[in-house]
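Quick one:
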Amino acid sequence: MRIRKNGARLLARAGRPGLLTSVALGALAIAPAAQAVVPNDTKTPTQILDTGVNGVGIMYRADGFVCTGTLVNPRTVIFAAHCVNDRNPATYSTVNNGVPVAFAFQADARPGLVNWLNNNYRTNTALSVYNVNNIAYHPDSLDPPALSFLYGDVAMATLDTPAKGVPTWTMLFSALPAPSSISNTTGTNYHVTLTGYGRTGSGTAGQNIGVDFRRRVAENFLGLLGSLDDIDTVLFGEGGGYNQNLYHVDFDDPANRNQYEFNVFKDEALPNEGITASGDLGGPLILDRTFAEKTVLGVLSGGSRYFAAQPQSSYGGSSFYQPLYLFWDWIAANNPYRYATAKAGDGKWSDASHWVTALDPNYRVIDSGGRLVNGVPTATGAGAFGTDAASKFGQICYQPNGAPSEGCYDVGTKRFSANGEPVATQGIASGTGLTSTVANNLGKVEIVDRSPSPEQVSLTDADPSAAVLADGSIKEAQASVPVPPASLANGLSGASNFIPNNIAPVASRGVVGRYYDVTLSAAGRTTLDTVATVDRFGIAGAGATLDVTSTGSLTSLMEIAQLAGTVNVNGSVNTPGDYFLMTGLLSGSGTVRTPFLTNMLGVIAPGGIGTIGTLSVEGNVVLSSASTLAIDLGANGVSDVLAVRGTGAGAANVGGTVAFAPTSGTRLRFGNRYTFLTATGGVTGSFRTATNLTPILRPVLSYAGNAVSVTIDAGRYADVVNGASQTQVSFARLLDQNRGLYGSYAGLYGETDVMSVAGIQASFEAMAPRTEALRTSMGETLTDNMARFYRDRLTKLDGGAMGGTLTMVGQPIQLAASSLNNIDLGMDQGGGQHHP
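Output:
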């Protein structure tokens, strides 16, 4: 608590009172009808209640303190250091007499708190309650003049279980640019959302209602990016050495009648204007309208009031937040979550040189074009003692009851809008009776044992303990420097020399926690022949492959997303979440353990393409209408199998296409039967299509309660021959009519059943008796020629035109007859002769 009194500055640290009673596992009794964040008088606390799970949560400390925090990845909450910096980080633990800590993300977090206390501080994902296994806070928050919350007040908590399904927030690591002008109505025009789980009340009464563990929300305009010294110097003529920039908002009275409201930061009240209160500490300052997406600017440290009699968190007060851009490099280094991807080319999962860290998708900067983009700054954060004067913007005013004639000072341009007096020589509020009181917004809840007369949970302000401010000196200013080379430790993208495999933190032994989100996107094969656990696994590159060998095992603690590429599983792949196959190939003869394997547009090939095997799924399978199941067929009864099984699961809902193909060297036979899908939990649905095996052989599917089988049936040859060829038509008719005698003519059918259309047509043409027809034709021609010869000679004789005699040598008539009867008379060796 910072107090200005009679020209002197007294700073009193807000101490933390001890527990009134020991922490009980029995129950809590909670005062009814209390919500947090203080609304203006036009709203009730009930009207500003938030709903659902949105990534803003309440921190429970088992010794009674409550704060608010923001989930920035599935494992990490960012909040304020002075929620926890009264103890060594290693002492926050569920063992060795430590203090357990948890975050809960339901809008009404009371059931989660009760469950957490009653169940030995265990994570309960159904109630969105997550135990904390590690805490880190910025060391500058321990600087004595900081009073644990005036600067460097940033902390990060690691959850022992990934918060699957809880939304995460982006963080802005750039300072907001100064607006071109400051408006009388909208001020900086940066609209922000305030939210938290602390106390509530009204604009006039302030925070007069206790905590009931419900999240509230209000709106405001960002009033100032400047320091506490900027405010004190403008209002009172002197500062106290608190030069770190903070984001500030004030609480304006919509009616402009409140005696304590003097518009400390120029703007007018919004319809849902509100301010933070005790217990909201650590909550986010959300920039919500400047860009297409909402993003977090800072974390709440405290609030100020400017009159001794003014209720805390009432009209005229203000709140200040630690800007994330000042500490972005510390945040990146202490964030336990690492996004990783494999380098291009082949390599083993266990090869540290195969991996590289990727840019955290929740890091944001403002680029040169003013766009909000994924990135990090090019220089380190200025920190609590850095040089950051150029970033300031906003106006500090004294305008009681909205009077525009009083003074305003612009911290960016360093100009008064009224009398023009220098800041250093005269405060614009001198002689007004203003004091400056700063509270740390930390909430304290009394946890009581169950008793016959239930006691209520109440929130108490921290007891101040006096501590005189130092002589006004501050640490030497530290300039920002270019970011160092990427490393796993500093959290920058592009680092290598690590193996993605989760490591749980153990603060007491100095073990730093690491949790990995792995996505394969570059072309190449990653071979996993060991055991690895990550928080999330995905594959997104068409040329990327994960090959899990028979000795390999991959566990993804949230889910698996295969958007493209190939995953071959001969070992095991495990996830308590779903396996989503968007496109690509899933193959292998191993085991996939998941509640649901859903194939949207991809291909599942048990064993592998061209290799027979059984792919086991312990869970349920959904094959959508656009999916493909590729099944290799061998000898009768030998085929790939997709085996779905599991206790309380094992159901298969089938659809899409099933594609059959023979393995190399296998000749499919009419009548063969194969069972290619089994499901202990039953089969529902049906495959949309089944591709034909050959122009003649076709699969006929049959569905039993727990299996799907295929029998090889035959179509008609008449449907594939050329109808203009009598030869093809005749042979097709012959084979179609005798299909029932397949066993007697298996050799013939076995050849033609597997031919292509062109092969069938050509074979039928070749089978026609064209040599016999040629011999007959030659015999007929020879007979006709001999007959004509004799006829011509006889005609001549009748006319007496010729003399001489006719002599027949040999047997020409027999020759012709023999030719017609297909008798080889050795004509090439010579035969009879005739002479005229």
